[in-house]
Every structure is written in C-alpha cells, then in structure tokens.
C-alpha cells in the first residue's frame, strides 16, 4: 500500500461511495484489508462540511400587529389565512413582538394597550386589549405547522400601567426576556426560535423609553447594557443567537463605532430616506408625525415626484448604505439580518400614494443585499403584511424576490456563526 499514490486513493475512495461518512461503511477491496479507512473518513467528512452552502432566510416583520390587529379586516384576525398567504409568497421567518415586560408581569392578564400612533398601519390605531398567554405559544405552534421560524423582538408597547418601567437595569432586561424564553421552552417550541433581538432599534427613545439616558448604540453605557443582558441569557439558552437591532444611516464611519463584540449578528434597519442625514425626508418635509396627517399630506404631494426626478441619485444612496453594511459585516465577521428596509420608512394604502416606486427601491435593496453574501436573513420591505394591501396583493413580486433571496449563498466565513448554524 505504501506505493499507491495518495491522490489516486482519494479518487478511488470518492468514486466508491455516495455520501459523506456513509461512504466509509463498505470500503472497496481495492484498498486492501489493512488500509486505515478512518483517515479517509475524516477527509470525506471534511470535504462534505466544506461543501455545505447555506441560503439566507426570507423574513418579514409582523411586530405587534400579529396580536393587536385582530378586528375584522385588520389582516391578522385569521392567523391561518395570513400565514398561508405568507408561505405562498415564499417567506419562511417572521419577526414579532413578544411583549417580554408583560409576560414577565403576568402572561395571563388582559392588558389595555395604548396606540403609538394613528397615522400608521402597524399595530392598533386606537386603544386595544391583548392577552399574551396562550396566544404567543399558539401563534408559534401555528407557525411551526407552516415551517415558519420566529424571530423574537420587542417594541416595549405601552400599557395602562407603563409596565416597561420595571426595566431599570440590564439585569432586569435579561430577566424579562428569560420569562419569554422559559415559556416557549416549557411548550417545547425552542426549535422554532430563529433569534432574539432584545430591543427594537436600540436605544431609540420612541421604542426604548426606559433607556433615554444611555446615549446612542455606540456609547459605553449601551455596550454595558448589551453585554450584561446577553451574557445572562446565554448562560441559560446558549444555543440562541442574540442581538440588538439598530436604525439610522450607515456610513463609512459606522463601521468603526462602538463595541459590538457581544452581538451574534448585526440587525441594521436600512432605508434610502436616511441617506445624507435624512435628505429625502427633509426635502419632502416628513417628520414622523404620530397623530397628524400633515406628514402624509407632504408625502402624497412630493415623495414620488422627488424620487422620479432623479431616480439614479436616490438608488445610489441606498446602494452605498448596503455596501457599507456589507463592509461592516466583514470587519466584525458577523452576518447581517435586515427586517425593516429599503426605500421609505413610513407608507400605507392612502389617497395619491402609489406602491410602484416603493417596490422599485425595495427590489433593488433586496437583490443587492442578497448578492453580497453577508446577509443571513433579508426582508423585502417593512410593509410585507396583509394590512398593506397594495404591497401584499402583488404575489408575483413577492415570489420573485423571495426566490432571489433563497437562491443566494451566505459567505463561507460566516457559517460557524451561531446565527448561521441556526438556519
């Protein structure tokens, strides 16, 4: 055997067996009875592992709408219908609000929830009531039937008792999240959890009112909160990927900001309108009005016209942010998930508002992100839900983009990451 060429051994070995380690169970007599097949088994296993290619997940954001928008015609009153339609469009993961502060307080109570706005179609535009248990686990079970994974996040919705105020330390932040994970684990549903985003758009005051003195996400105090809370969660549930999602324009300077070593992956929310310090919204005069239609009045009259006047300029601004995000991923060696994106932040079915230009930007962002190999999960927009009828009814458009996402390949250097292993 010493005289046999090693390359010939490998060729003959791989030609004799069909798949991975199974090939080693019936060795070819051509090698002789004394040949050490354990060595070739290792070679074969290594070859199989290195050839594995993982695809990004097509994800959508159903935030707090999944439970709040339960009145007739609101879009989520029939979960089976909504999930079957989502599956038809090619999506296989949903990011939802798990209401950790309310589950920690008492998952069985009925809570009176105040509206964050009445100008948008996410969530309820008026007071509403929710009971988290057993609805959260029931929803996850139903998602399992459709082979749809759940990403857990929270917008810290305001109830009549302002229960979010109990979160005054990073330890308490972890504690409320443990109550959610323990509940899910108790029902045998942990395999359905894709990842945990401890706080939506951290630490934006609109969504994290308890964190107003932390500064921005790149501050030392922010890093302390993120590190401490994630360490506690990892101690009990080490298999889960953890992050804090961020918002704001991504620039070259973003790449070097802050300590993000504790995050398993990046979840930046990327929109063209954030580019050049919110240039587009400034020209339109849109100011995120919560209970006034003034902003939408300006969007209806100015937004599409402004975009059409110089499409290439606005598209290029979006592409720059995607390029910088991909570079950020490479520098930190962390995959990206984006669930809110790509063109305009706020939009809805409304007089004088057309979806065509919004879909153009969303298609561009989706395809370009998929090409980079840095994204592990990609949304097509933040309007991918049944309440946005103008976007939702274009089934062909959704299928085209989810096909692009599912045809992409995640870069090999990211495959050992906890999030990639969760895929």
Could you please describe the fold and organization of this structure?
It is a single chain. The chain contains 15 helices and twelve strands. The chain has 423 residues and is an alpha/beta fold. It folds into two domains: 43 residues, no CATH class; 367 residues, Glycosidases (TIM Barrel, Alpha-Beta Barrel). The strands form three sheets. The protein has a seven-stranded parallel sheet with strand order 7-6-5-2-1-12-10. Strands 8-9-11 form a three-stranded parallel sheet. α8 links the parallel β6 and β7. The N terminus is likely disordered.
Can you tell me the CATH architecture of the largest domain? Alpha-Beta Barrel
Structural class: alpha/beta
CATH homologous superfamily descriptor of the largest domain:
Glycosidases
Give the neighbour order of strands across the main sheet.
Answer: 7-6-5-2-1-12-10
> What number of domains?
2
What do we call the CATH topology of the largest domain?
TIM Barrel
What composes the largest sheet?
7 strands, parallel
CATH class of the largest domain: Alpha Beta
What characteristic shape results from the CA principal axes? globular
Could you give the count of β-strands?
Answer: 12
